[in-house]
Amino acid sequence: MRTPDGFDLQGHRGARGLAPENTLPAFRRALDLGVTTLEMDAVISADRQVVVSHDPWMASAFCSHPDGAPVRPEEEAGLLIYRMPYAEVARYDCGSRGHPAFPRQERQAAIKPLLRDAIRMAERHAAHLGRPPVFYNVETKSMPSGDGVLHPEPEAFVALIWEVAEREGVAERFTLQSFDVRTLQTARRMRLPIRLSLLVEDAGQGPAESLRDGLGALGFVPHVYSPHFGLVDEAVVARAHADAMAVVPWTVNDEAAMRRLRDLGVDGPITDYPDLGMQVLAPK
Questions:
Q1: What is the chain's percent helix, strand, coil content, to nearest 5?
Q2: Mutual orientation of helices 181-189 and 154-167 as an angle, nearest 10°?
Q3: Which pLDDT tens digit goes with each residue over 169-186?
Q4: Taking burial as the number of CB atoms within 10 A of a residue's CB, which of 207, 231, 232, 276 is the most buried?
Q5: Is position 73 within any domain?
Q6: In which domain, by residue range, is 242 found?
Q7: CA distance readout (Å), 74 to 86, 94, 284
Q8: Domain assignment of residue 61, yes or no
Q9: E strand or H helix at 43, and its extent?
Q10: Model-wide pTM > 0.90
Q11: Crossing angle of helices 181-189/207-218, nearest 10°?
């Protein structure tokens, strides 16, 4: 497996602040801006296709029915991607309405793509730009209560994602990340030659306690420690690096926070605004 050289700027859901999240336009925009890694989320459709989507349903905040009518909040539970064949998933537009939380996001028609198609586009576009091949950081959107309801069990989930990464020839540049430790434990048992990243959210604990408890729940040291950016301090970076873990905090959308993290020695941020990340990286 390969590790990104230098500061690993990761485009969150592609470039969510600038283009519809987890779509081909967002990934293309992130590549145009110069990200090292495309960060994205994966769910599984009824016909066992790996679909790029953060939500396990069609989100009412920004998705529209095939006839153009906005998805209503009360409809989400009946629009589970795990119960829909991909041909049906692809009929929904999740870009034209924009996202209310991201006013800079360019409104444009966009569907939830297959992971396969996102990788193929990114490989072609990176080559077209004359830049090195991009890395991929894919999150399993799973939890124990969702098994068989929102997604398959971890073994099947991981196997389906791995099949795509291997078939598309990007396994050496592939990271699997999750808050669900079962995902990472499964990938380790399968001895997959990919990087594993532990996501940790802010549960009211301090940085040191979050690191300790996260690793304790996982049961081994992963390749990457990926906490909420507020859970990073100098001691956490030093401890992680001493254990050969890269530190990649999420989701960093503030210039001051990004500069602070860079100065602390993190290995790269996950951000909705890759344009901001490039500004922070630019030499003065």
A1: 40, 15, 45
A2: 60
A3: 999 999 999 999 999 999
A4: 232
A5: no
A6: 10-56+110-281
A7: 22, 17, 50
A8: no
A9: strand 37-44
A10: yes
A11: 50
